[in-house]
Amino acid sequence: MMHLSNAEIVAGIRNRDKAVFEAVFKHFSPSMYNIAVRYLKDEDEANDVVQDVFLNLWRGATLLDERSPVQHYLARATVNTCLNAIKKEQRKQTYTREQLFTTASVTDYLALEHKELIAQYHAALEKLPEQCRRVFEMSRLKGHSPTEIATQLNISINTVYAHLTTALKKLRLSLNQQ
């Protein structure tokens, strides 16, 4: 590797000479790995960065400048790739924090809204006439059938249906107004 000039290295990579590229990789990848580890503090991620840098070197071979040392290009590309990875991780962490905050806020809001709705429901229920409320509660809260309600309260089944209809209309009206 040491016997190739920078111009020969650039020409070899531009001409897609695999032997030159492999020699460049073997010679420079350890130092690029060290740079990446210093920035990222993660060996696996550093390996990924080095692979990306050399892949981009191969893909962008026609853009190489023979006046600039390949080692400098690789070092700058490694640093930039590391910085991009760090920025991406920071954005990901910021997004995750924002999502947690948003989720917590929405959950708190929904819980509060639910409490308010329950309070409004109970207030509307209290406004119903006593017999109407009793029929509604027996039907909706206790799960009794209209026949059971009629028998227990000693009223006709038609009266049970009338009370249920009245209760539902008044509750719906009261809750829609609030």
UniProtKB/TrEMBL annotation:
InterPro entries in the record: RNA_pol_sigma-70-like, RNA_pol_sigma-70_dom, RNA_pol_sigma70_bacteroid, RNA_pol_sigma70_r2, RNA_pol_sigma70_r4_t2, RNA_pol_sigma_r2, RNA_pol_sigma_r3/r4-like, WH-like_DNA-bd_sf
Segments traversing the membrane: none
Keyword vocabulary terms for this entry: Sigma factor, Transcription, Transcription regulation
Span of domain RNA polymerase sigma factor 70 region 4 type: 120-171
Superkingdom per UniProt: Bacteria
Alphabetical list of SUPFAM superfamilies matching this protein: Sigma2 domain of RNA polymerase sigma factors, Sigma3 and sigma4 domains of RNA polymerase sigma factors
Pfam family name, one: Sigma70_r2
Domain RNA polymerase sigma-70 region: 25-91
Family: Belongs to the sigma-70 factor family. ECF subfamily.
Protein name: RNA polymerase sigma-70 factor
